[in-house]
Every structure is written in structure tokens, then in C-alpha cells.
Design a protein that fits this description.
The chain contains seven helices and 13 strands. It is an alpha+beta fold and 374 residues long. The protein folds into three domains: 82 residues, predicted glycosyltransferase like domains (Thrombin, subunit H); 67 residues; 149 residues, Heat Shock Protein 90 (2-Layer Sandwich), CATH 3.30.565.10. The chain has a six-stranded antiparallel β-barrel. A five-stranded mixed β-sheet has the order 8-10-11-13-12. A two-stranded antiparallel sheet has the order 7-9. A hairpin with a 2-residue loop joins strand 10 and strand 11. The longest helix is centred in the middle third of the chain and has 76 residues.
Length: 374
């Protein structure tokens, strides 16, 4: 039975299957004794091979190839230049079965070594992944314990601290009896330190809520202009002590919004207190509320303060990210802006800042008009 053409072609391909070699060799011609060309064997089959020469060379039909401690005779079938390569096809005088067997055996050894290295690397990688997973689990447990501890301790601190503030206010106001001017000054210092400490404790509590994912928002319809005016009045005393002109400008297009009153008040207070803290006497601070898009509004607090260096801007909204010389005048933990960012982003908004050293800063927050829809 005569084999089909397709089977004949398949058998021919198996018979003359090429194996990639990519190994160096030397080529010489009997017609040009003493002249040797450096070549690279590209591939080999049972009856032929393809050479790539470093430089173009017109070889005679009969050539001798020195490769792998062997001398192989052959006849040039073609010579052609492909781009920068000069290729020579060679028909071998003798069958290279033995050489191919050695070549395959050598390649098998290499492949086995690679397979062993891959297996070793895979085992090491699995070990590293297990170590990282265990470390992550330990860190998560430690973070959870830390958050519970901070929340518990903060509550324990806040209860007696409120008592200290309350009794100090009674003494300061003279409701528990007359006090001298010096005593009233001391009581004022006690109240200032106590309120500052209470602010820090509240910030730590907010941070633990954020880390544990327990920060909730109670949305209601708010008059933004009224809320801004309320916060402005709350910081007016600080502005007055430093003779800072404090203004509020609310665009009438931003009227009623859905927001958590306490959290929006916290964002405004953090921005305003930060601006007042770093604005020198006689400066100015402006808070603006502007429409951002049909579904969002922008809150901007602009000051004429000391400004911030460009390389420090990326650290502003990070926990404990207080800056160096540019913020040397301030005190606190550096949590206020970080908490502001978390409050805004958890409602689908974003925060940012633009500043130039010596020319003040512009802190802004973009919030959705309806966070539930966003």
C-alpha cells in the first residue's frame, strides 16, 4: 500500500528534524589551506546543519567543520546573507546519529538540572509564602489587639479627663468660690492642656475606629453655609488672639447636602485649626464652599501662612506625618489631617493640598452631595 502524500511529508519531517544547537565551530576548506573561519552552528539534523558565519565568506563546495572535538565533512548547499548574518547550509557526508544522541543526552542533563533548580526554587518560594502569611497573620492579630487596647485605654482616660475639665471650669468661673488673678491664670493653663489632651484622645479613638472599619456615618440634610458659620464661630477666639482675619464664603449653588454633621464639622475644624495654627499674626484665613460637579462640592481652606515645601506635601495626610521646620510652630500628633483624609475618602471623596513656601496653603476636600448614591 502506497503511503499518502501527507504521511510521506510527516515521515520526511521526522527524518530530517532539526535540533537547535547554537554552539561555536571552526570551518575550513581544503582548497584554501591554513584559512579558518569562525562560525556558529545554528541547528543540526541527521543529514545536514546550518552555519552562521561572523563575516561573509564564499566557501568551496567541500568543507571541514570542527565541532565538539569532532571533524565533520560536508558539502555546501547554499550560501546567503540575511541582514547582518551570513548563513551556510551544509549537507553532511555521514549520518550524525551518534552526535545527535550525545547532543540530546547533554541537553537532557541540562534540562534535568534546570528542572531540579525550578523544583528547589518552588519549594523555597512556598516556604517564603508561608512565612509571609504567618507574619501577616501575626501583624493582623497585633494590630487588632493594639486597636482594642487603645480604644479601652482612651475611654478610661477620657472619663476622668472630662471630670478634670468640668471642675476646672467651675473654679475658673468662680462658681466654687472667689479665685485670684494668678489662680485664674493657672486654671486657664490647666483647661488648655486638658482640652488639648482630650482632643488627642479623641483623635486616637477615631483612628482606632478607622483601622477596625467601625467608622459609621449618620447622613442627614444639612445647610452647609450654616455649618461652616458654626465652625467659624468656634475657632473665632483663636483667630482673634492672633489678629487673623477669618472669612467664610459659600456659593449659593451649594445649599442643602446629605452629610454626617459631626464628621463634616470635624473636617472643617481640622482644616481651619491647622490653618490658624500656622498663619502668623495679622494674616488671613478663608474657608470656601464651591460646586465641584453636579454630584459633588468642594470645601477649600486657604491661608497666608508659612507654606509647605513641595517634598513634604506627600506626608501631610499620613498618620503621625508632622513635618520639620515648616511645621515647627505646631503641636499635636499629626493625626488631624490623616483622620480628615479617612473621613472624606470613606464617603467617596478625596482630599488635597497646594502650597508654596512663604505664600500660604490651600487645603481642599471634595465630597459627594449624596454619599449614599455615590
Amino acid at each position: 500500500m502506497t503511503p499518502s502524500p501527507a504521511r510521506s511529508r510527516a515521515a520526511s519531517k521526522r527524518k530530517y528534524r532539526r535540533f537547535l544547537v547554537n554552539q561555536p565551530a571552526l570551518v575550513s576548506c581544503a582548497a584554501v589551506p591554513g584559512l579558518v573561519w569562525t562560525a556558529r552552528i545554528h541547528d543540526v539534523s541527521r543529514r545536514g546543519m546550518q552555519l552562521i558565519l561572523e563575516h561573509p565568506a564564499r566557501l568551496d563546495s567541500e568543507i571541514l567543520i570542527q565541532w565538539s572535538n569532532r571533524e565533520i565533512s560536508g558539502r555546501v548547499r547554499y550560501q546567503q546573507q540575511r541582514g547582518a548574518q551570513y548563513r551556510v547550509g551544509v549537507a553532511l557526508a555521514n549520518c550524525c546519529d551518534t552526535l545527535l544522541v550525545e547532543l540530546l543526552a547533554r541537553e537532557t542533563v541540562v534540562l534535568r538540572r534546570i528542572d531540579h533548580e525550578v523544583a528547589s526554587s518552588s519549594t523555597l518560594l512556598r516556604h517564603k509564602i508561608r512565612e509571609m502569611a504567618n507574619a501577616l497573620e501575626s501583624a493582623s492579630r497585633a494590630s487588632e489587639i493594639k486597636s482594642r487596647f487603645l480604644a479601652s485605654v482612651s475611654h478610661e482616660f477620657r472619663t476622668p479627663l472630662n471630670g478634670i475639665i468640668g471642675f476646672s471650669e467651675l473654679l475658673y468661673d468662680g462658681k466654687a468660690g472667689p479665685v485670684t488673678a494668678n489662680q485664674q491664670e493657672y486654671l486657664s493653663d490647666i483647661l488648655g492642656c486638658s482640652r488639648h489632651l482630650l482632643t488627642l484622645i479623641n483623635q486616637v479613638l477615631d483612628l482606632t475606629k478607622i483601622e477596625s472599619g467601625k467608622m459609621d456615618f449618620q447622613y442627614e440634610t444639612l445647610d452647609v453655609a450654616a455649618l461652616v458659620e458654626e465652625v467659624k464661630e468656634g475657632v473665632q477666639a483663636l483667630a482673634g488672639r492672633k489678629r487673623i482675619a477669618l472669612q467664610a464664603e459659600c456659593d449659593p449653588r451649594v445649599d442643602k447636602v446629605q452629610a454626617d454633621a459631626a464628621r463634616l464639622r470635624q473636617v472643617l475644624f481640622n482644616y481651619l485649626s491647622n490653618a490658624l495654627k500656622f498663619t502668623p499674626e495679622g494674616g488671613s484665613v478663608v474657608v470656601r464652599v464651591l460646586p465641584e460637579s453636579p454630584g459633588a462640592y468642594r470645601v477649600v481652606v486657604e491661608d497666608t501662612g508659612v507654606g509647605i515645601r513641595a517634598e513634604d506635601l506627600s506626608r501631610l495626610f499620613i498618620e503621625f506625618g508632622q513635618l520639620g521646620k515648616a511645621r515647627a510652630a505646631g503641636s499635636g500628633t499629626g493625626l488631624g489631617l490623616a483622620i480628615t483624609r479617612q473621613i472624606v475618602e470613606k464617603q467617596g471623596g478625596r482630599v488635597g493640598v497646594e502650597s508654596t513656601v512663604g505664600n500660604g496653603s490651600r487645603f481642599w476636600a471634595v465630597l459627594p452631595v449624596n454619599p449614599n448614591a455615590a
